[in-house]
């Protein structure tokens, strides 16, 4: 009897440990005209960020929003729209946030200029520090 009680106490622990390994995904069953379109659509979905998720692209995200947008991208590719047109449509709807490679313009200059500015600041601090050490000797 004690053995059965131990098993009953032990089973929920086993299920809790192994439940982390079970994963569910939405499966795309979209039919493309050819393999080149499928590859292009998947590449585009990979280059667009999910507006609902943090730092996941449309291809990786399991969110319903990402699934719907992924299907939309697939449909636009099947319709013959260019990559640029599709990216512009998504950017118009969701802003530059959806694009992993936002354009350089008045809204994003700080995003692009910050790394260069920080690099110049670090280099000038190094030069200033080494020159002050030399002057002190």
Automatic annotation (TrEMBL):
It is found in: Periplasm. One of its GO terms (molecular function) is metal ion binding. Residues 15-134 form the CcmH/CycL/Ccl2/NrfF N-terminal domain. The chain crosses the membrane at residues 109-128. GO terms for biological process: cytochrome complex assembly. NCBIfam families: cyt_nit_nrfF. Residues 1-24 form the signal peptide. The keyword Transmembrane applies. Pfam families: CcmH (PF03918). Its main location: periplasm. Belongs to the CcmH/CycL/Ccl2/NrfF family. The lineage of its organism: Bacteria, Pseudomonadati, Pseudomonadota, Gammaproteobacteria, Pasteurellales. The keyword Transmembrane helix applies. InterPro entries: C-type_cytochrome_biogenesis, CcmH/CycL/Ccl2/NrfF_N, CcmH/CycL/NrfF/Ccl2_sf, For-dep_Cytc_NO2Rdtase_NrfF. Keywords: Heme, Iron, Lyase, Membrane, Metal-binding, Periplasm, Signal, Transmembrane, Transmembrane helix. This is Formate-dependent nitrite reductase complex subunit.
